[in-house]
Write a structure and sequence with these properties.
Elements lengths: L1 E6 L15 H20 L6 E6 L2 H9 L3 E4 L6 H14 L5 E3 L9 H10 L5 E6 L6 E7 L13 H10 L5 E2 L4 H4 L5 H8 L6 H8 L2 H8 L7
Parallel strand pairs: 1-2, 1-4, 2-3, 5-7
Antiparallel strand pairs: 4-6, 5-6
């Protein structure tokens, strides 16, 4: 099974965090989150490979740093199109499965990837991890890779379940993987992330840059002194 990580243009990343972070802070945050996710993926022994789909030179450079494959997008057409592009390439190479990972889940652990793969049934099969609000789809594992069309977006969880139902597939739904379940899209997500102590690159960046202290003080949260 191959992990697929779509990475949008860094300069356009995390616009929903605009009320809290400057453009440069958002770009830096996304780059560091992506590196946390890449590290977790390359250290998951059950994965056969990792592919980053992007047209952004910085994202491609990060991927090469971790010796993973880069699929160069001609345009930024969204997450569903990026994953579909990877699926096409992996099908051409006769790969038997994919596991999609978002680049904005810095609490992701290799052990969570291993748990998804360990419980994934023989194909045709689908496993899915919803976002923490149970609306989005933070991870989808499919065998074969082209089992269903993709509907990534804020409320994609139910549409993906519906696609499985149409094909008489009983998906494995993981509700106990908090690292992959927390994607950082909004100021509220950032609050949730900062409430948890951690030693990821993202935690360290937010602390050392002063972003965490400044942001938490505006939220009237404890731990701002």
């Amino acid at each position: 099974m191959w992990a697929v990580l779509p990475a949008k243009d860094f300069r356009n990343a995390k616009k929903r965090l605009s009320p809290a972070l400057s453009p440069q802070e958002r770009q830096s945050l996304f780059a560091i989150m992506l590196e946390d996710v890449l590290e977790a993926a390359v250290n998951a022994p059950s994965l056969d490979g990792v592919m980053v789909v992007t047209r952004d030179p910085q994202a491609a450079s990060l991927a090469r740093k971790y010796n993973v494959e880069v699929n160069n997008e001609p345009s930024n057409d969204g997450q569903s199109a990026a994953v579909a592009r990877a699926v096409y390439q992996l099908n051409q190479s006769r790969r038997n499965g994919i596991l999609t990972l978002p680049g904005d889940t810095p609490n992701l652990r290799s052990s969570e990837i291993e748990a998804i793969i360990a419980k994934h049934p023989p194909g045709p099969a689908m496993s899915i991890v919803p976002s923490h609000d149970k609306l989005g789809s933070n991870c989808i594992a499919l065998t074969p890779p082209n089992l269903i069309p993709f509907h990534f977006g804020h409320e994609s969880f139910q549409p993906h379940l519906d696609e499985a139902t149409k094909r008489h597939i009983d998906p494995v739904v993981h509700l106990d993987l908090p690292g992959i379940g927390l994607d950082i899209d909004t100021p509220a997500d950032l609050v949730r992330f900062l409430r948890e102590d951690g030693e990821t690159r993202t935690h360290k960046y937010l602390r050392e840059s002063g972003i965490a202290k400044n942001f938490l003080s505006k939220q009237n949260m404890p731990g701002t002194a």
